[in-house]
Write a structure and sequence with these properties.
By secondary structure, the protein is α/β, with parallel strands linked by helices. It has a single domain, classed as Ribonuclease Z/Hydroxyacylglutathione hydrolase-like (Metallo-beta-lactamase, Chain A, 4-Layer Sandwich). Helix content is about 20%, strand content about 30%. It has five helices and 13 strands. It has a six-stranded mixed sheet, covered by helices on one side. Strands 7-8-9-10-13 form a five-stranded mixed sheet, with no helix packed on it. A two-stranded antiparallel sheet has the order 11-12. α4 packs antiparallel against α5. The chain is globular, with a radius of gyration of 16 Å. It starts with 6 loop residues before the first strand and ends with a helix. The mean pLDDT is about 95.
Amino acid sequence: MTAARVVPVVSDVELPAGMAGPEPMTFDVRCFLVPHEDGVALVDTGMRPDAEPIATALTAIGAGWPDLTDVVLTHEHPDHCGGLSTVVAKAPSAAVWAGSGDTFPVPTRTADDGTVIRGLRVIATPGHTAGHLCLLDEDHGALFTGDAIGSQDGTLTQGPEPFIADHQQAARSLRRLAGLRAARLLFGHGDEVADPADALARFVRG
């Protein structure tokens, strides 16, 4: 199985003390360009309102805003959709997709469980937010996890508890993701990990 062509767009975020815990926190946030035969899809838009990291990444792959066909939002938290308004202004013909349980500053199309968008199958994974979704590239086994799961220093993590809306739902969603046995885990926060399917199964077992 060949790897899917995915271009991560990585930015750093700094949270002051008291926002996610007693200490300041610095972490990365990732959105992803996914080239396809008709253009480029974008998974999340990152936190920067100017969306400049996305513009730079598009240029690096020989594309531009007119090539953007679809934007799929994993959830409503601002570190994942902070650039949305600019992206929509720059690529007004792109379809914007999201889970029905979340709200955004622009109109979105509903990405129901099982919907396929440019080869990416929507996996409804409520818990982190009510409308959280993941995306599975079934041809290549690549799973875009949003914030259902992330990694830090090579270890899987669900991130700060204050940002998880429903812990029981989040746990059920993680069990569903573990059952997919994905060949790659593409996190909203953190680098890919070795042996992702086994790593996620172990994490779910606790």
